[in-house]
Amino acid sequence: MKRVLFLLLATFIFLSACQNEDADNENNQDTLTISTTIFALEDFISKIGGEYVDVESIYPPNADAHTYEPSSRELVELADQDAFLYSGVGMEPFAEKAEEILADEDVTVVPLGENVHLRGEHNHGDEESSHEHESDDHEHDHHNENSSSIHIDGVNDHYHSGDTVELEAHTDENTDVDNWKWYSRADSSGEWAEIDGQSSAQYSGTLDESVEVKAVLSDDNNEVVAESEPVQLLIDNHDGESGVGDPHVFIDPVLSIQLAENIKNTLIDLQPEQEEYFTANFEEVKSQLEQVDQDLQQTFDNADLNHLIVSHAAYGYWEERYGLEQISIHGLSPTQEPSQSELVQIINAAEEHGLQYVAFENNVSSKVSEIIQSEIGADSITLRNMETITQEDIDNGEDYFSLMEKNIEALEKALTK
């Protein structure tokens, strides 16, 4: 009898184990494994995918998203995932290589920002229209009264990163003055900075990012005799993510709603039976992003100041949406170093606007920013640019929304007289 009971018990345990294993396998099949890049995307994917998604960023904590290159082994390991979701707005320099590696693999690859219009982006299809708008804008610009007397020749329709640009300025005025200076700015809302080493009517330089330039002719007393209209030097690498526009879309809560919706749609494509679940989670994320938008608007509306010195130009979307004027030490990428004249301009701007803070970032180390902070006697704040986050923030369970709250607290401090 004992032997029969023992056999029955052993059979029951075996069948239970098989059922548990089948359940585990079913659960594993229901969970999507996803690799991504930017922290903001990782957080949105986790929140929208919930229990049906296992997501991890390919970036280590606090990496510089502009320059980080994963190893070949890490790229090959992407083939083990169900999907690789990245921003696709020019932030990830390795994206093209990753797509090539995954081309023959059963991995869904989606650039989540491909339908997001980037700040400063050049669209060839709208070229004629954009030129018309530029002409209209120039009519309202406060140029020197002789601004139209200098013309710049040699501007191409577009350039590729690293191209040598050669321009020539000439004036219709009869003058013996030959004191030429060239100036550049990132876009029409930026401040002009003199370009070092350009002191003749001929300009020659390497183009690494899209800029506007102008030529100025001055007399011996440094009084402006003539000035050109700005001309645009546009980079278009024809790669779908040329970096022409500002890639920091995830710092903008309104554009982040577009990213989140693209995530929702991608997850539904991968697991259509969970459409209701993903949609409900997306609506929650959308609601939280709308609240961040309101909080940022209120912060800037109530601020005493609207200028802020930042370590790199990651906050252009706050300029467009909320009226911030960022004075960036580096360009759209932290690798773009300022010239000596640009440093002088930054220091002068700090004094002019009474700025008492320099905004550093969690993943950007800048000796130049430290020098400027010391030069103007400023305090520092830290902004989270949502590219990557620190190990401490990970350990503390921070997410996009808690870090945005910290950003708002830092802004309130820095923008108060």
CATH superfamily of the largest domain: Nitrogenase molybdenum iron protein domain
Total of DSSP H or I helical runs spanning 4+ residues: 12
**Under CATH, the topology of the largest domain is which?**
Rossmann fold
Number of structural domains: 3
Strand content: 15-25%
The helix content, as a percent range, equals: 25-40%
Order of helices and strands: HEHEHEHEHEEEEEEEEHHEHEHEHEHH
Specify Rg, calculated over alpha carbons.
27 Å
| Poorly predicted tracts of residues | 22-28, 123-148, 237-243
Task: State the major sheet.
Answer: 5 strands, antiparallel
Q: State the separation between the terminal residues, measured CA to CA.
A: 89 Å
Helix and strand arrangement:
Layout: H1 2-30, E1 32-36, H2 39-49, E2 53-57, H3 72-77, E3 83-86, H4 95-102, E4 108-111, H5 127-140, E5 150-153, E6 163-171, E7 179-185, E8 193-194, E9 202-207, E10 211-218, E11 224-227, E12 231-233, H6 253-270, H7 275-301, E13 307-310, H8 316-322, E14 325-328, H9 340-353, E15 357-361, H10 367-376, E16 379-383, H11 391-395, H12 400-414
Parallel strand pairs: 1-2, 1-3, 3-4, 13-14, 13-15, 15-16
Antiparallel strand pairs: 5-6, 6-9, 7-8, 7-10, 10-11, 10-12
Describe it for me?
Residues 118-160 are annotated as: Disordered. The protein is an alpha/beta fold and 417 residues long. It has three domains: 32-116 and 247-273, Nitrogenase molybdenum iron protein domain (Rossmann fold, 3-Layer(aba) Sandwich); 159-233, Immunoglobulin-like; 279-415, Nitrogenase molybdenum iron protein domain (Rossmann fold). Helix content is 39%, strand content 19%. The protein has helices spanning 2-30, 39-49, 72-77, 95-102, 127-140, 253-270, 275-301, 316-322, 340-353, 367-376, 391-395, 400-414; strands at 32-36, 53-57, 83-86, 108-111, 150-153, 163-171, 179-185, 193-194, 202-207, 211-218, 224-227, 231-233, 307-310, 325-328, 357-361, 379-383. Helix 2 packs across helix 6, helix 6 packs antiparallel against helix 7 and helix 7 packs parallel to helix 12 (400-414). The protein is globular.
